[in-house]
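Human: We require from you a protein record containing the residue sequence and its fold in token form, and nothing else.

Assistant:
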Amino acid sequence: MTVLSHSDCQSLLEDIPDFLGAATPQAWIDHALTQLPLLLIDHAQCEKKAASTAISMMYKYVDRRDLLAKMSKLAREELVHFDQVLKLMDKRGLEYRHLTAGRYAGALHELIRKAEPEQLIDRLIVGAFVEARSCERFAALVPYLDDELGRFYASLLKSEARHYRHYLGLARQYSLDDIQPRVVAFREREAELISTPDDVFRFHSGIPA
């Protein structure tokens, strides 16, 4: 299997570049290529966290039938991805370990409203941005990676894009109002986090300081 070209990867993103407020800076890509062991460890951590987030939403919103179905499937897929990353790390002699969190997720969660159903809507929108950014970063990295890692990251594009659409679709379904103002608010903050200097390198970090 040939690793996808940059144009092929971009075509798989469909509407994601428009949804996101900024593309991954080349400086982040260049730095990531020198930090692949750390990138893989944090990638594994992100997959585990994504599964945990989906499960926590299933516990909190037990009356949302569509949410339960989509989050259940999402959690299973993310755990499969977690296992796949671990196996890839084993082949490369890399040991999985805990990493402290970067600023990305915490900064987005600061914007989440406290009252319901607004909190649910905001959590779903945050989920959409996290999944969309993951998909965009996989696509940005693929052309520069070795064949094995490039094929693996290319294989994740469709599932990550689907997760993004599930989160955004549920936000629209459950909101009593137009979600676009909230999307814009999170987009502005997310773009700032991606485009500004960041002291900690992680899968979702900003420009390496």
Summary: The chain has a mean pLDDT of 94. The first helix runs from residue 6 to 13.
